[in-house]
User: Fold this.
Amino acid sequence: QVQLVESGGGLVQAGGSLRLSCATSGFAFARSIMGWFRQAPGKEREFVGLVYWFGGITRYADSVKGRFIISRDDAVNTLYLEMNSLKPEDTAVYYCAPVNVNNGNYYGTYWGQGTQVTVSS
Assistant:
């Protein structure tokens, strides 16, 4: 079955950096658009960014553009999120997911348990 295991979260001061990983299995990772989403307390889950399986094409939410970098290693079915210049408003549980793109909207299709990122001011 599909498994997604996020790791690398933690507590960091504003301005710091973290690198998240997402180990996957049970689906064709190398042929999947993969993305990161996040959910802050009391808010809906929101799109952070994605990477296509071809050409390394990426898309980012405006709130993280220029600070976050998504990458993938198809040899080990793993997705990464490098987060720099972190802000308190980046505090959330971060999830990776295979992504469907529909009319310019991004939808995760499977979910892992997520990893908590907390940014202190």
